[in-house]
Amino acid sequence: MTLISVPDMSCGHCKASVTEALTALPGATSVSVDLTLRRVEVKGAADPESMLIALLEIGFPAQIIAKT
């Protein structure tokens, strides 16, 4: 599981865009977005660096909070 902070995420469209971008990554088995906390939990074996790049490409700078 990887927990990511996405500070610029603020609406349903943001949530959908982030979910779509991360779900498309190889190894991502589930993506859960919390708009209130502006955090995303990704389960599976997707590469954390790839997650950050995918989010940046759609306009959402992010950072890894935790990786287990």
Automatic annotation (TrEMBL):
PROSITE patterns: HMA_1 (PS01047), HMA_2 (PS50846)
Record bears the keyword Metal-binding: yes
MF annotations from Gene Ontology: metal ion binding
Keywords: Metal-binding
SUPFAM superfamilies: HMA, heavy metal-associated domain
InterPro entries the record matches: Heavy-metal-associated_CS, HMA_dom, HMA_dom_sf
Ranges where the HMA domain occurs: 1-63
Name by which UniProt lists this protein: Heavy metal transport/detoxification protein
Organism of origin: Cypionkella aquatica
Taxonomic lineage from the root: Bacteria, Pseudomonadati, Pseudomonadota, Alphaproteobacteria, Rhodobacterales
